[in-house]
Task: structure prediction
Amino acid sequence: MDFSDTPEEAAFRKDARKWLDANATPRDGSEKLQDAFMANTPEEVTASQAWQKRKADGGWAGITWPREHGGRGGNEMQQIIWNQEEGNFKVPPNIFVVSSGLVAPTLIAHGTEAQKTEILPTLLSGKGVWCQLFSEPSAGSDLAGIRTRARRNGDDWVINGQKIWTSGAHYSGYGILLVRTDPDVPKHKGLTMFIVKMDSPGIEARRIKQISGHSSFNEVFLDDLRIPDSDRLGPLNQGWRVAMTTLTNERYTLAIGRSVGGMRAEELIPLAASVSLNGCPAIEDNQVRAKIAEFASRQRGMEFTSYRIMTALSRDKEPMIEGSIGKLLLGKLRQEMAGFALELTGGAAGIGDSPTDQTGLWRGDYLTAPGNRISGGSDEIQRNIIAERILGMPPEVRLDKDIAFSDLK
Amino acid sequence: MNFDFSDDQEEIRHAVARLLDGHTSFEKSHEMLDESAGFDRDLWAKMAEGGWLAVTIPEDYGGAGMGAVELAVLAQEIGRTLAPIPFGAAQYLAIPALVAYGNADQKSALLPNLATGQKIITVALAEGAGFAPGDVSAKVVGGKISGVKSPVSDADVADVAIVAAQDETGASGLYVVDLKAKGASVEPLDAMDPTRPQSRITLNDVAADQLVGADGSAINRLIDGAAVLVAFEQLGVAAHALDISTKYALERTAFGRPIGGFQALKHRMADMFAKIELARSNAFFGAWALAEDDERLPEAAACARLTALDACQFACEESIQIHGGIGYTWVANPHLFLRRGWHLKAMLGPSTIWSERLLGALKTPETLTKKAG
Result:
C-alpha cells in the first residue's frame, strides 16, 4: 500500500491546485455548511451549473470518464486527488452527484450508443441535471413493489403513478424513471427503466419540506405522461437489473462523497475549549476528550475506507463491501458527532443567526444526519446487504417472491 | 497511491497462512489452554525454518530485511490462527528497538539467534496498566537495573528482555537484560489468555545494557509502531471470531430456520463486519505511516488502535452471544478469541490511553491542556 503520491500523481495534484487557485477561492472557515449534494436556492443551482461548466471547460469534470465520452480518461486515484484539492476551496454544492455518480454509470452500462452520445456530454457540461425517479409512497426499501404503471400505446408508453423522495426533481432537466410494464409476473420481473424529460406534459413535482427546514426532495406526480419507446433505458422488463447498477453506484458514491466535506471531528476541539463544563473548560473533561478522540478515529477510518473504494474501482472490482460499510457508518457518525456538539453548547435551546455560528452549523448537521441514514438504502438495508451478500446469511423471507404482482394483496 | 496490500504482500499472506493453518487448530489451542503449556515449540520451529521470525531483521543479521507492512501481513495471520507462540512482544517491540537503537555488539549478539528461534526475547514496558515512559519507575543505577515489571508476555520462556527504566537523572531508556542472570526472577501470573502466558519480573541489581538513543520519544514511537502491528493481529482475531459466528448461525436452526436468517443476528454480524473494516482502513494507513516513518504515525497509530480495540472486543463478545449457551462453555471456541483479544488489549493499554495519545497527535493548541488533578 502507498498513501503517498507517485511522481505522476504529484504532477496531477500540482496541475489541479494550479487550476483551482486560478478559478476558485480557498476555504477560510467562514463557509456556511450545506448538504454538499443539494442546492437549496435557485442561486445555488445556477452557481453549481456554472462551476460544473467551468470544470468541464478546464478538463476537470469527468476525470475517470473515457475520452470518447468527453472525459479526461484518468484513473480513480486522480479522482481522489481532485476531491481532496477541490475540498480546500469554496465551491458551490455539487448537484451533479446523481447525474455523474448514478445516472452516468447506468447509461454507460445499459444505454444505446445514441443515448450515450446524446446525453453524456450534457452531464459533463452541467447543462443537464438529472434526478432518479425510483421510490414511491408504498415502495421504499422494497423498491420492486413500485406501482407506477406504463402501458404501451403505439410507439409510446403512457405512464401514470407517483414517485417520492426524488432529490432535486425541481431543478432537474431529466430523470431516470423505473416503472411497471408487466404486472402479471412476479414483482422484480415486470419493471422497465426509462429516460424522461422533466418538463414533459403530465409531470408535476411538488417539493417536500424536511426536518432540516430545507426542501431538497420532491413528490412527483405522473399523469398520462408519454415517453417514446426510444427513450427506454435497457431491455423491456429488465428494469430491476438496470436499477441495481444505479443503486450499487449510489452506495459508494454516497460513501465517497460524504466522507469528505461536512463537519470534522477536530472542529469539536475549539468548540469544547470555548464552553464551560462543571466549572472547567469542557476540553479538560476526560469523557469529552475520549469522545472527541473516538469520533476522530472513526472519521479517519471512513476517509480511508473511501480510498479503499477507489482502490477497488481502479482494479475493476465492484467495491460492494466498502460501499455498503461506508454508507452504513456515515450517517450514524454524523448524527452522534453533531448531537455531542449540541450537548456541549446547549445549542438545542437556541442559537444566533450568524452563518458562521459553530452551533448553528452543528445543528444543521444534526438535522441533516437522519436523512443520511435513510436515503440511498437505509442503514437496515445496508446491513441486509452486508449480511446476505458478504457474510452469506440467508436472505430475508420474501413471501411475494413467486407471486404475480397483480395477485399481491 | 494504493490503499490495499500489494500482490507480493498477498503472496506472503498466503504462504504464512498455509504454514499456520497446518500447525494450529482449535484442538491445540484448547490443549494449551488446559495445560498452560508455555508455547507450541513445533510451530515455533516451523516458523523459524520458514524465516517468519526474521521478517524485519536486517539481512546482515540473518533476516529477510522486509518492512512493517510485510510484518503487518504476518501479524494478521497470527491473530487469525490464535498462534500460541511468543511472537508479538518480540516482533512488534523488542526487535524494532534492537534494529533501530542496538549497537553492533548488541545486534550481533541477539538478532541472528532471534532469527533462528534459538533465543526468545520479550519486552517489559508495563508496570501495571501504564506502559508509557512516564509510567515507569524501574531504575538503572551504575549499569544495574532494579524494579518490578508486570505484566510481561513470554517472560517464562524468554532468555532476554528489553526493559524500560529510568536512569539516575530520571531519563527514560531501554535496556537489554538477561532474564537468566542473578537477581532476575520471573513469576508466572494467572493470564486471561493462558495460551499467551504473562509473568511478573522482579529485577534486583541486574546488569543492564543500554540501547543508546532509545529515549522517551523513541520509546513512544516504538509503542506507536507496535500499536499498528497489534491492530493487524486484532483484526485477524476479530475477523475469525466473526467467521465462526457466521458458520454457526448457518448451522444452528430455531423456529424452523437457520438463526442467521433473523435480522437481530444478521444485523449484529453486519455491525461486527463494518467495525472490522473501519479498523482495517485505519490499520492500512498506520502500516504505511510506520513503513515510511511518516510524521503522521502517532495519529495513524492511535486511530488504528482505537478502532481495532472496539472492533475486536465487539466481535469477540458478540461471537459468544451468537453461539448462545454452547458459546459460554469452556470446550467451545469463542472464548479463545475473547481471551486473545484481552491479551492484545492489555499489551498496549486501553482506549483511555490512546484517546489522549490521539488528541496529543492532533496538535491543536487546545488539546495540550490536560485535565488538572
